[in-house]
């Protein structure tokens, strides 16, 4: 079956993408409004896209033709924290996805403790196993008051128990117990089912093929 994206509606294109590009990591983004309200919201059109410079990309959809609080706050301050979501915090993350009024702090509603960031103003979620303090690198405006935000990572926090060797920057990824977004609705995926396939160098490939 073929789907011509040039003839499909935006809703149908979205349905096809989220049903097939899985699992998607979740950016639990914390921002701060001009009046000081701390906002937290999850986004799964997200990933790390470069190591040097260290860049994260987040696509922030609009709501009813207007920019969401996250995008408004990032445009105002130029700063945000991307927290990653582990299994233990998945229900708290869903609470922050509720469409609260901009004057309401999702961290307060979800009873999430926060910790001051080191290099930027918005705080991070204390219990999140990984948090990236970011400054805007570039924003690409998309139709419908949507923003594709590229964030430059200026500081990273990882829970101590998941750090195998700090000097060599080795992280015990399974200990993070992260979750990802699956298809539409309330479906998520844990990252506990893993398997390893070693990479093959050219010499070994030539030997096995010959």
List keywords for this structure.
210 residues; alpha+beta; Pnp Oxidase, Chain A; seven-stranded antiparallel sheet; three-stranded antiparallel sheet; 14 strands; globular
What does this protein look like?
This protein is α+β, with helices and mostly antiparallel strands and 210 residues long. It has a single domain (10-209), classed as Pnp Oxidase, Chain A, CATH 2.30.110.10. The protein is built from six helices and 14 strands. The chain has helices at residues 10-20, 69-77, 90-95, 106-109, 173-176, 202-209; strands at residues 24-25, 27-32, 38-43, 46-51, 54-60, 79-83, 114-115, 124-125, 130-142, 146-158, 163-165, 170-171, 179-181, 188-190. It has a seven-stranded antiparallel sheet with strand order 3-2-6-9-10-5-4, covered by helices on one side. A hairpin with a 2-residue loop joins strand 4 (46-51) and strand 5 (54-60). It starts with 9 loop residues before the first helix and ends with a helix. 29% of the residues are buried.
Using the 3D structure, state the CATH architecture: Roll
The figure for the number of domains is: 1
User: How would the global form be characterised?
Assistant: globular
Task: Count the beta strands.
Answer: 14
Radius of gyration computed on alpha carbons: 19 Å
**Overall SS class:** alpha+beta
Mean pLDDT over all positions: 95
Please bin the fraction of helical residues: 10-25%
CATH fourth-tier homologous superfamily: Electron Transport, Fmn-binding Protein, Chain A
> In this structure, how is the largest beta sheet organized?
7 strands, antiparallel
CATH class: Mainly Beta
- What is the subunit arrangement here? single chain
- The largest sheet has its strands arranged as 3-2-6-9-10-5-4
Uncertain residue segments: none
CATH topology name, in short, is Pnp Oxidase, Chain A
Amino-to-carboxy terminus distance: 38 Å
């Amino acid at each position: 079956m073929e789907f011509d994206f040039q003839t499909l509606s935006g809703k149908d294109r979205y349905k096809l993408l989220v049903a097939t590009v899985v699992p998607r990591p979740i950016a639990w983004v914390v921002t701060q409004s001009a009046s000081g309200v701390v906002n937290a919201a999850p986004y799964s059109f997200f990933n790390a896209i470069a190591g040097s410079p260290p860049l994260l990309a987040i696509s922030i959809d609009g709501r009813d033709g207007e920019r969401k609080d996250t995008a408004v706050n990032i445009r105002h301050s130029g700063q945000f924290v991307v927290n990653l979501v582990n299994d233990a915090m998945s229900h708290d993350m869903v609470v922050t996805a509720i469409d609260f009024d901009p004057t309401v702090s999702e961290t307060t509603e979800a009873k999430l403790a926060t910790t001051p960031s080191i290099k930027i103003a918005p705080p991070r979620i204390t219990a999140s196993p990984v948090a990236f303090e970011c400054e805007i690198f570039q924003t690409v405006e998309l139709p419908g008051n949507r923003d594709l935000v590229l964030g430059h990572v200026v500081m990273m926090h990882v829970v101590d128990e998941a750090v195998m060797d700090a000097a060599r920057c080795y992280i015990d990824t399974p200990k993070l117990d992260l979750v990802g977004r699956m298809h539409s609705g309330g479906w998520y995926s844990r990252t506990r089912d893993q398997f390893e396939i070693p990479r093959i160098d050219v010499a070994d490939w030539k030997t096995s093929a010959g």
